[in-house]
Amino acid sequence: MKCDSAPRRPPCDQLKKPMRSVELFTGCGGLALGLARAGFTHERMVEWNDCAVATIQHNAARDLDHISHWPIEKADIRSIDWREHAGISLVAGGPPCQPFSIGGKHRGDDDTRDMWPQAIRAVREIRPDAFLFENVRGLLRPKFAPYLATIVAGLATPDRRSDLRYEVAVQQVDAANFGAAQRRHRVLIMGFRSDLGIAPSELRPTHSRERLVWDQHVTGDYWREHGLRSRLDDIAPLDAALVRKLRARDVAPKEKRWVTVRDALSGLGEPDGIDNHVFQPGARVYKGHTGSPLDLPAKALKAGDHGVPGGENMMVTDAGGVRYFTIREAARLQGLPDDYLFPRSWSENMRQLGNAVPVELAMVAGHTLAKQLGRVSKRKAA
Predict the structure, then answer these.
(1) How far apart are CA 73 and CA 196, in angstroms?
(2) In contact, 135 and 187? CB cutoff 8 Å
(3) What CATH number is given for 207-355 in this structure?
(4) Domains of the chain: which residue ranges?
(5) Is 28 tagged catalytic?
(6) For residues 147 and 145, what is the distance between their CA atoms, to the nearest angstrom?
(7) What value does the mean pLDDT of the chain take?
(8) Cα distance between residue 347 and residue 281, in whole Å
(9) What is the pLDDT of residues 183-223, one digit of tens each?
(10) pLDDT score for 311
(11) Are 205 and 368 in contact (CB under 8 A)?
(12) 36 and 59 in contact (C-beta within 8 Å)?
């Protein structure tokens, strides 16, 4: 299976000419792959973690589409002079989320892992047309409101000694609403250089819970597609009012349905020990961690070591038991293709996947940015 076998949107005019990008805090490559599929060509990619760098190098050496020429390097972001990349289209990345995550210590800008000043410095030195940064929704907690305001102000005016300015937008998103098979709540911070005369567009959801409920409990199409007995009337209490509303309206929601765990893992089969599809023993239910039902998007994959190792990284099987997701299954939940392999241990690979940006979300964001940049190019050419 090649990486570009995944469904993609029709390219816009801007995508006929690849746009150059630089990526900070690359991780295992989810954001990078989504942006590459949206037409961006990575000029430089930087990551500090040895294992994440090894994952990307392993896949680049396997000559995968979009990935074979990724210029990944292991480096401390603080040591890099970004000025040689001045004028590229996009700076992107996911600064470490631990200072703001629910599972972290919530120290914010007092945490030595806070790298937002370095993200702002990259924007200041590169002066890109646009930037895209991703982080956990914990960044929006009231406790961190003053620091978020500082981040936005820093990105809006990254160099007070010059006229460099950016139009900045902050949007909270759920990756399930953009085609990921996972309820992953994140914050996107996007910006365009002010002299381009455009403002960031809000990402418009492409998938919805309503359409999933329609396919499961109004038409039954979902169950037929999976060769299962119809469960039209097997309605969860939280969906009962929505089912009544949809049946009364009798018009299918226009979005695509949320992608469920069952959808994402279709055709993969039980763990067989091949290509990261290896059974991991030890899964069990405990308070607050009950696994992901098959017929909903998965709960967010976790990277931390709090609680039982792997945390919520398990499924509820049709038989009612639980087992850990294999690495291959977790990769599918993050939108990574089956030929994208992880060469390290289960715990290390799951840590990388738990920190990744879902490819589908990154691709929608990339297409949105590319479309707006394309309008600028057309205007300049007119």
Answers:
(1) 31
(2) yes
(3) 3.90.120
(4) 3-205+356-381, 207-355
(5) no
(6) 5
(7) 90
(8) 12
(9) 999 999 999 999 999 999 999 999 999 999 999 999 999 99
(10) 57
(11) no
(12) no
Yes or no: say if 327 and 350 are a contact pair by the CB < 8 Å rule: yes
The secondary element (H helix, E strand) that includes residue 19 is strand 19-24
Contact assessment for residue 119 and residue 112, using Cβ atoms and an 8 Å cutoff? no
What value does the mean pLDDT take over residues 51-57? 97
The amino acid present at 152, given as its one-letter code, is: V
CATH for 3-205+356-381, options being 3.40.50.150, 3.40.1480.10, 3.40.50.300, 3.40.50.970: 3.40.50.150
Whole-Å CA distances, 131 to 20, 75, 83, 105, 125? 12, 21, 15, 28, 13
User: Closest Cα partner for 219 from 181, 249, 250?
Assistant: 250
- Averaged pLDDT for residues 354-377: 94
Which of 12, 28, 51, 97 does the annotation list as catalytic?
97
Reported pTM: 0.90
Q: What residues contact residue 6 under an 8 Å CB cut-off, 6+ apart?
A: 37, 335, 337, 359
Contact 208, 179 (CB under 8 A): no
Q: Which helix (H) or strand (E) holds 72?
A: strand 72-74
Helix extents (H) in the chain: 30-37, 50-60, 116-126, 145-156, 209-217, 221-225, 240-249, 261-265, 327-333, 346-355, 359-381
Name residue, tokens 């009612």: 320
Burial of 74 (0-12, 13-18, 19+ CB in 10 A): middle
Give the Cα separation of 187 and 95 in Å (integer).
Answer: 12
Find the length of the chain: 382
- Residue 316 and residue 292 in contact, taking contact as beta carbons nearer than 8 Å: yes
